[in-house]
Specification:
Mean pLDDT: 94
InterPro entries: Aminotransferase_I/II_large, PyrdxlP-dep_Trfase, PyrdxlP-dep_Trfase_major, PyrdxlP-dep_Trfase_small, TyrNic_aminoTrfase
Cofactor: pyridoxal 5'-phosphate
Family: Belongs to the class-I pyridoxal-phosphate-dependent aminotransferase family.
Distance between the termini: 74 Å
Radius of gyration: 21 Å
Number of helices: 11
Number of domains: 2
CATH superfamily of the largest domain: Type I PLP-dependent aspartate aminotransferase-like (Major domain)
Low-confidence stretches: 6-13
Order of helices and strands: EEHEHEHEEHEHEEEHHHHEEHEEH
GO biological process, one term: L-tyrosine catabolic process
Helix content: 25-40%
CATH class of the largest domain: Alpha Beta
Structural class: alpha/beta
GO molecular function, one term: pyridoxal phosphate binding
CATH topology of the largest domain: Aspartate Aminotransferase, domain 2
CATH architecture of the largest domain: 3-Layer(aba) Sandwich
């Protein structure tokens, strides 16, 4: 119940009705068509959005195509829901673009969707308009739809601007997943969304929308109080706030790119352009007494108090994911410690 003066009011079961059109209007700014409040499903963060999508779409024998390297929560939810997870490759030599040939080789009559993450976690990539158009056309040919994880939308600081996958919803239907946790730095608010980008009404005809609604009705909802803050948050956050974040990330990305050049056992295939991460390759042949990426990261944490995610956690053995979302002074110190650690374990020159 909520207080409205002296009168108690019971809130609507689905939450604050003003949040839905606000999110629809906000996301429509980047599209060539208008979303409606009916296209929006609110969730308790993007993690619940993934859970709902996988649960609503799962059917016996179906499979879903996931990126490698990638956020493993998709696999966990897909398998839990009874789907098979199949992995297509991202290409490190091409700014981590989707290997569309790999997608076509993996897909069959039981494939329901493919997932892309843009801007990328864990790779720090940002996809161009042209590449997203290629992904959409691949999905159209295969008769599948696209789940676009855009939780890092607009967090770009390189030469590519963010383009939403929803731009190509008329080519292949798209479910966009997002949240306020990253761009507004409020992860504890736990508010995300699933948004239907489907001007041709494919999801309606195939009952995908009905499945989402059915599962949505038996799932928990984000806090009503947080929902009530959404219209103000989306409308009144000043651009200076976003610019400050981007400036910090850009400085960290530049620093990371330059400093990693001086560490001979680590190779960065492409400079990070978005999100908060970068994937780098670990060359074990340059090191002694290090078994693999997990061993490397455990020893680094113990000896230098620097935490890096081993690549095996995102499906890429003997790679590393470095987080760049930190103050420049702390980040520089961390990179210096990483270099010291690598020198300590470097094989002596013969």
């Amino acid at each position: 119940m909520a207080e409205d003066g002296a009168r108690p009011v019971v809130t609507m079961a689905q939450g604050d009705p003003s949040a839905f059109p606000s999110i629809a209007e906000y996301l429509s700014r980047d599209l060539q068509y208008e979303l409606s409040a009916d296209d929006v499903f609110l969730t308790s963060g993007c993690a619940q959005a993934i859970e709902i999508v996988c649960s609503a779409l799962a059917r016996p024998g179906t499979n879903i195509l996931l990126p490698r390297p990638g956020y493993r929560f998709y696999e966990a939810r897909a398998v839990f829901s009874g789907m098979e997870a199949r992995y297509f490759d991202l290409l490190p030599g091409k700014d981590w673009e989707v290997d569309t040939e790999s997608v076509q080789a993996l897909a069959d009559k039981n494939t329901i969707a493919m997932v892309i993450v843009n801007p990328g976690n864990p790779c720090g990539n940002v996809y161009s308009y042209e590449h997203l158009a290629k992904v959409a056309e691949t999905a159209r040919k295969l008769g599948i739809f696209v789940i676009a994880d855009e939780v890092y939308a607009h967090m770009t600081f390189g030469d590519k601007k963010f383009v939403p996958m929803g731009m190509f919803g008329s080519v292949a239907p798209v479910l966009t997943l997002g949240s306020i946790s990253k761009r507004w730095f409020v992860p504890g608010w736990r508010l995300g969304w699933i948004v239907i980008n489907d001007p041709n009404g494919v999801f309606q005809r195939t009952k995908v929308t009905d499945s989402l609604k059915s599962y949505y009705e038996i799932s928990t909802d984000p806090s009503t109080f947080v929902q009530g803050a959404i219209p103000q948050l989306l409308e009144n956050t000043k651009q200076e706030f976003f610019n400050k974040t981007i400036d910090i990330l850009r400085e960290a990305a530049d620093m990371c790119w330059e400093k990693l050049k001086d560490i001979n056992c680590i190779t960065c295939p492409s400079k990070p352009k978005g999100s908060m991460f970068v994937m780098v390759k670990l060359d074990l042949s340059c090191l002694q007494d290090i078994k693999d990426d997990m061993d490397f990261c455990c020893r680094l944490a113990k000896e230098e108090s620097v935490v890096i995610l081993p690549g095996c956690a995102v499906g890429y053995k003997n790679w590393l994911r470095i987080t760049i979302a930190t103050a420049p002074s702390s980040f520089q110190d961390g990179l210096d410690r990483l270099k010291t650690f690598c020198l300590r374990y470097s094989k002596p020159n013969k």
